[in-house]
Amino acid sequence: MGGMGHLYLVRHGQASFGAADYDQLSPLGQRQSERLGEYLAAKGLQFEAVITGTLKRHAQTWAGIAQGAGLAHEPLAWPGLNEYDSDALIRAIHPAPLPRPDTPELYRQYFRLLRDGMTQWMNGVVSPQGMPAYLDFVQGVRGALDHVRTTHSGNVLIISSGGPIATAVGQVLGTTPEATIELNMRIRNTALTEMAFTPKRHALLTFNTLPHLDDAASASWVTYA
Questions:
Q1: Which CA distances in Å does 38 have to 28, 33, 45?
Q2: Which phi and psi (to 5°) does residue 118 adopt?
Q3: I need a labelling partner for 41 at 20 to 30 A (CA). Which of 81, 96, 104, 178 fits?
Q4: From the centroid of its chain, how far is CA 174?
Q5: Model confidence over 46-101: pLDDT tens digits?
Q6: What pLDDT score does 192 carry?
Q7: What is d(CA 164, CA 57) in angstroms, rounded to the nearest whole number?
Q8: Which secondary-structure segment (H or E) carries 92?
Q9: Nearest in space to 210 (alpha carbons), one of 65, 60, 32, 58
Q10: DSSP state letter for 154
């Protein structure tokens, strides 16, 4: 298909959920990233450009992919691809400090509160501290998509987080904020979401796939946080 580019959106590898600094890949997250790089190299994929958010876990995921694939691009840092602040979202609706989510019940409570906080933020009910308005967050993601389709015509790799990737898919499909939250909650670490694009528009091809972990030996490598 002439003039059609392919955009690969990758969620970062497993980060350090429940640790003092979440924004850090776990050792498994590092391995997931390298495995994805090996998979991309085995497919023979070359990239015209690499774009990442500015968080540590994005840079570390790119480092793992680059190592696994033998790539040496200098990525373009795009702040609009950064994740929302989940702790700020929760604090906006539940100001009292939460215990560390280290039991299944506390983990479920954390994600229940996160979903509520996200819904209220998307609907303009709360303005979490230090966070953009939801429409500005969406605009940051749209800006990255617009940049890709107006600047590139080959393969582009974006490394970001669950929120921006779900938002990108939601923008392309025209989903409600509620549906975007459901997409967001399901995105797995180092999952690939693929879009075709022309200068005019993006089209979704695949969502949230893990071809690099698609064997029995890798079942324990599939993570969500």
A1: 15, 9, 10
A2: -65, -45
A3: 81
A4: 18
A5: 999 999 999 999 999 999 999 999 999 999 999 999 999 999 999 999 999 998 88
A6: 98
A7: 14
A8: helix 86-93
A9: 32
A10: S
Beta carbons within 10 angstroms of residue 14's beta carbon: 25
Task: Indicate if the pLDDT at residue 2 is higher than 80.
Answer: no
Tokens of 99: 């215990």
| Distance, CA of 113 to CA of 95 (rounded, Å) | 11
Cβ neighbours of residue 120 under 8 Å, at least 6 residues apart?
92, 93, 126
Q: Specify the pLDDT at position 1.
A: 44
The pair of structure tokens assigned to 142 is 């749209």
Residue for token digits 């819904």? 119
Length of the chain: 225
Q: pTM of the entire structure?
A: 0.95
pLDDT at 45: 96
Q: Do residues 210 and 161 touch, judged by C-beta distance below 8 A?
A: no
Task: Name the least confident of 6-20, 32-46, 147-161.
Answer: 6-20
Mean pLDDT (whole number) for 133-159 = 98
Amino acid present at 125: V
Local structure of 51: helix, strand or coil: strand
Task: Give the residue-averaged pLDDT of 180-188.
Answer: 96
Structural contact between residues 11 and 161, judged by C-beta atoms closer than 8 angstroms: yes
CATH: 3.40.309.10, 3.40.50.1240, 3.40.50.1700, 3.30.70.2190. Which one for 5-83+132-221? 3.40.50.1240
